[in-house]
Amino acid sequence: MNLVLRSIWAAARSSVVRGFACGTLALAAGSLLAGCGAPEARVPDATLAAAPGPANREICSNDVNVRNAALASIGTATRGEKVTLMPERVTGTGALAGNTFARVYFHAAPVGYGYVAQQFLCKLGSQPPAPTGKRVIEVNYTTNRLKFFVDGKLVREWNVGTMRQAVLNSGDYKVGTYTIWAKDVCPPWRKPGTTVDVPGCASNNPLGTRGLWFSGYLYGLHGTIEPALIAEGTTANGRRVSSGCIRNSNANIEWLYDQVKIGDEVRLFW
Fold first, then answer.
1. pTM, whole model, 2 decimals?
2. Per-residue confidence at 75, pLDDT binned at 50, 70, 90?
3. Cβ(227)–Cβ(140) below 8 Å
4. Considering only CA atoms, which of 246, 244, 257 is closest in space to residue 119?
5. Looking at residues 142-151, what average pLDDT do you find?
6. Which residue(s) pair with 221 in the sheet?
7. Could you tell me the pLDDT band of residue 48, with boundaries at 50, 70 and 90?
8. DSSP state, residue 127
9. What SS3 state is found at 26?
10. Could you tell me the domains of the chain?
């Protein structure tokens, strides 16, 4: 639990979910906490007589953070949204270190400007459409395999890492059906038992490049910095390597991150 708890609160702070703003978790109804001030982007702007130019990029992932010039979260953008790339750039620090954010103009309502991490800006028409049917993630603790279904049809499956034997013996895990309540890009991590914060996507951050957190359960799916432990050819028992979360290769969790949305179903079972 220590492994992911810090990251979940970091997800609230650096939010990739609608209903988060000003770096503070929104209340249950989705309303924003008072004192944040007026958003600086994604709102109608009467001073814009016309768009600064035709759209030349599109957002290439779901639930991408939109930030202001100070890199405070002010909303999210959806895969496929058309934008015009502007010349301004801001370099991230702290938990956002290693990321460069580009200023863009959003053509769809609410029109306006915002900053988006460059890795989520793709050429127009370069992205295949995301699945539109019912999406379900299944994790089998017996085989330590993840399966992704759309409308009941298996789309992909792969090896995952799950709880170490000591965690199994303690009973500190759950089975059942959950939903995805938060999505995190480059989740930061606090080393257990310390006050050391490790930036997201750092080489010593065990959460890897993406996180998908479950409702009602302080664990989730994330990447890894030890892909050999879950590679093809490893055994199911050999993949019992985590403190409770479900480890994926970074390539697989990045792919899955783009396929799912907040509220999609996750089934954990033996």
1. 0.67
2. confident
3. no
4. 257
5. 97
6. 212, 246
7. low
8. S
9. coil
10. 2-11+130-269 (2.40.440.10), 38-122 (2.30.30)
